[in-house]
Amino acid sequence: MPCTIIAGGQWGDEGKGKISSFLSLKDEPTKVARSGVGPNAGHTVHWKGEEYGLREISCGFVQEKAEVLIGPGVLINPEVVLDEIEKTGIGERIGIDPKCPIIEQKHIEQDKSSKHLESEIGTTGTGCGPANSERANRSIKLAREIDELEEFITDVPKKINEGIKNGEKVIIEGS
Q: Known catalytic residues?
């Protein structure tokens, strides 16, 4: 089967990151992609004596032959993703879709200051909720507008679809 999708059904903490890293080493995919909401929760992977708490990139980065991709619709906090790229050393093999919405500081501040979100809904304080509201209004910045991300911008659905069409193994890790 050329495409494996790892999705959770219990609102997080099911071990998706561990499954993604395990399958990435076992199945040797050419592409590993992160899908889902964004940096509201983390996936943990232990690799070469280090522990990585990843909130943006796929735990499948451990497959050193694979492209690491972030699909359209995944909320991107540029500070978080750039830090993860540096810590994992994947700068030469990561691609970020130009349509990824951007979490800005104002979204984080809205998230943390909302009494409604804190007491009624619950929030991670990462800005995902307010950013998604702005996305629904179609006024959010996109990855293609952020200079610091320019070198990583690529058409992620095209890469994944071409890989599947060519019989390559692809792993998609949900959030």
A: 13, 43
